[in-house]
Amino acid sequence: MSDGVQRLAELIAGRSWLALTGAGFSTDSGIPDYRGPDSPPANPMLYADFVGDPANRSRYWVRSYYGWPRMRRVAANPGHRALAALGRESGLQGVITQNVDGLHTEAGSDPVLELHGRLAEVICLDCRASIDRAAFQRQLEALNPDLPELSVPAGEAELRPDGDLDIDDESGFVVPDCPRCAGILKPDVVFFGESVPKERVARAYAMVEAAQVLVVLGSSLTVMSGLRFVRYQAKRDLPVAIVNRGATRGDELATVRLEAGTTETMLGLQELLGTAVR
Questions:
Q1: Where are the beta strands (DSSP E) in the chain?
Q2: pTM, rounded to two decimals
């Protein structure tokens, strides 16, 4: 057991705490992150580009079409399950996640606030109608009956952090409009360049305020959507712990800082706090 995990256990023992998780929490489930030390180069779709150009939307959705079957097979890892167990038996008040994979909920954590939304839903940008992603996949398949099966050597079409595949052939892909109002359909996730809904941010701040310790797990805190909660906690003069492989923008504010993976840390913390995975 590392000294860092011991210090983290001592920090949260007898206190209420909140987990703020990032992409590094899901890497052990096979989903890459954008900024980890071993992350592949990534060029995520910007919100303005998606909304402003039908060709960009076609490019996004064909990659998502091929990536979705793989994304559906991704499962919660032991770190997800250990965190869920800690939530039942320690002072964990809940999870705020920047991830869009739904794995914290699958593992049994509750409550979970998905700050950036969830890939399992598609939403209309005009009337806000919601469509199940699996049902939308069937629509895409029906509209593109001649689309070939993806057949590339391993490693040449990699799953990206947002669940799409990095492929080159994107021509001629047909994307439906909203069946209710003919508006633009978009995955119900926050794209780069898009703001998190204000009511969701308010709920997140309320969760931070309800806990004594904020524990960041697997996030570089590069974007303000996560970093603001660390800064808020520090302004309240309350402790922050950060567990991440690689530097983060919140390191100087950390009471406890672990250069470690989230799965190993959660399993160690679970052992020290005497909980058991159910």
A1: 17-21, 92-97, 112-114, 117-124, 130-132, 185-189, 213-217, 240-243, 256-258
A2: 0.89
